[in-house]
Design goal:
InterPro entries: Cu-oxidase-like_N, Cu-oxidase_C, Cu-oxidase_fam, Cu_oxidase_Cu_BS, Cupredoxin. By secondary structure, the chain is mostly beta strands. The chain has three domains: 195 residues, Cupredoxins -  blue copper proteins (Immunoglobulin-like, Sandwich); 142 residues, Immunoglobulin-like; 121 residues, Cupredoxins -  blue copper proteins (Immunoglobulin-like). Helix content is 7%, strand content 38%. Helix 1 packs antiparallel against helix 2. The radius of gyration is 22 Å and the shape is globular. The structure holds CU-O-CU linkage and copper (II) ion (2 copies).
Length: 500
């Protein structure tokens, strides 16, 4: 609460330029930093999102039924919190399917307003993407389907209504979508869901005095709402009873705006085994791992019998303009791991995992550049009826992306996985050497992203690219592209009931 009050008093504008001078800021500065280490009680077991049920129909398609609805969820003593969920009151089930499978969905919107479900990280036809052009009206059912055609990865789903994504996500609409394939099944990584393979949807929330979510701070930092309590899979401060020597965590930064710098309380080393788009070629050992909103990472952690250790978020070296205001200096306890007196020991972490990105040597059909600043990309604000450009199916493009105003931004592209070829001309750090679909943009640095567009041409239905800080995205830091088949030209977004 302290942070919000101070922010209101100082009147920082969202996304606006702020001059930090004067004694008032000094007072604010001291109050703004959050440190919850030692203050989280870890009194409930980590809840595991249930696997989504599915039926295989007569055509062989795996069919999932998802119901979006509102409800109330208990996060703390006292009042329950008004929330939204998928097949429940907060978050949704974990969808799971294999590469090569056809999946189909009945997505029923039981809310009193339109929303959508976007399959973040999925390679699929634009009309199935669940973006701003595929909203589902209140009371209606949307039935997308496609064949899974990408390597094993931890993807996710969330709403994507232009202008309302931040609010819809904040109320609780999100879930994991795990894709499996032969490589992941053969990999010998811990893989018993909910036992040694744990989904962890990490979200910060700000609660008001009546335990309701504070959806936005009217006058906040540069990012939108930054909460001071951290939920994992929809509960504050859970613990995990560890029964195996190795545990795999599928971390999703499901926050609207907060950057996490994950590490353990004893600074132990852990192994990064997969990034957004799938398994790394080989594990990378580290003590810290940053994830910006929308990014995922699979890590494997080794435990000793009887020990206790906490997963934390440490201050990050991001160095954005607003520092403490945007939470970069916070230290947050997230989850406690309690190892049993005896642990079943499994295999070691495999030395080789997936296939490294390989686009560096490809012929580049087209280079484009993207400058992110002031809620715009290349000085343009998102417009529903403007397709910014078309890419040619079957080609590789290189996109040069830069964050030009020092606030926290990242960059996400729909439909494809990309390879970070270079950061400011240098070799990317190890955690950026795997397949990505969302990348943190350190201020002023140029990120060269290579991606191949294949299949699913449609000159009239765009995919999105945008900053995944949801307030920025809603404010217009987003654009649209189409994938064109041979001889096709950029078309026009069909007129619809959607606002433009
Ligand atoms: Cu996670 Cu355009 O979205
Ligand atoms: Cu996406
Ligand atoms: Cu941004």
């Amino acid at each position: 609460m302290k942070r919000r009050t101070a922010l209101k008093t100082l009147g920082f504008g969202i996304g606006g330029a702020v001059v930090l001078t004067g004694g008032g800021y000094g007072v604010y500065y001291a109050a703004a930093k959050q440190d919850t280490v030692g203050k989280v009680t870890f009194d409930k077991a980590l809840s595991i999102p249930p696997p989504a049920e599915s039926k295989v129909d007569s055509t062989g398609a795996r069919v999932f039924t998802l119901g979006i609805r509102s409800g109330r969820t208990r996060f703390k003593a006292g009042s329950t919190t008004r929330t939204w969920g998928v097949n429940g009151t907060y978050l949704g089930p974990t969808i799971r399917a294999r590469r090569g499978e056809r999946v189909e969905f009945a997505v029923h919107n039981g809310l009193d307003q339109e929303t959508s479900l976007h399959w973040h990280g999925m390679h699929l036809p634009a009309a199935m993407d669940g973006g701003p052009h595929q909203t589902v009206a209140a009371g209606e059912t949307w039935r997308p389907g496609w064949t899974i055609d990408q390597p094993a990865a931890s993807l996710w789903y969330h709403p994507h209504v232009h202008g309302s994504t931040a609010d819809h996500m904040y109320r609780g609409l999100a879930g994991l979508f795990i894709v499996d394939d032969e490589d992941s099944e053969a990999s010998k990584l811990p893989s018993e869901y909910g036992v040694d393979d744990l989904p962890m949807i990490v979200q910060d929330r700000a609660f008001d005095g009546d335990n309701q979510f504070e959806e936005r701070v009217p006058l906040g930092g540069s990012l939108g709402v930054i909460g001071d309590e951290v939920l994992v899979n929809g509960a504050i401060g859970p613990y995990v009873d560890v029964t195996t020597g190795l545990v795999r965590l599928r971390l999703l930064n499901g926050s609207n705006a907060r950057l996490y710098n994950f590490g353990f309380s004893d600074d132990r080393t852990f192994s990064l085994v997969a990034t957004d788009g799938g398994l790394l070629a080989r594990p990378w050992n580290t003590e810290r791992l940053s994830l910006s909103p929308g990014e995922r990472a699979e890590i494997v952690v080794a435990f000793k019998p009887g020990e206790r250790v906490e997963l934390r978020s440490y201050p990050s070296a991001y160095g954005g303009t607003l520092g403490r205001v945007d939470g970069f200096d916070d230290r947050l306890d997230i989850c406690q791991f309690r190892a049993a007196a005896t642990l079943s020991d499994g295999a070691d972490i495999p030395a080789s995992l997936g296939v490294a990105p390989d686009l560096a040597g490809e012929e580049v059909a087209r280079e484009r550049s993207f400058v992110l600043a002031s809620d715009r990309i290349n000085s343009r604000s998102m417009a529903m009826d403007r397709i910014d450009f078309g890419v040619r199916e079957g080609t590789v493009e290189v996109w040069d992306v830069v964050n030009d105003n020092g606030f926290l931004h990242n960059f996400h592209v729909h439909d494809v996985r990309f390879q970070v070829l270079a950061v400011d001309g240098g070799k990317p750090e190890p955690h950026l050497r795997g397949w990505k679909d969302t990348v943190l943009l350190a201020p002023g640095k140029h990120y060269r992203l290579a991606m191949r567009f294949h299949g699913h041409t449609d000159p009239n239905t765009p995919y999105m690219y945008h900053c995944h800080l949801l307030q920025h995205e809603d404010n217009g830091m987003m654009g649209q592209f189409v994938v064109l088949g041979e001889g096709e030209k950029v078309g026009a977004v069909p007129q619809s009931h959607h606002h433009s």
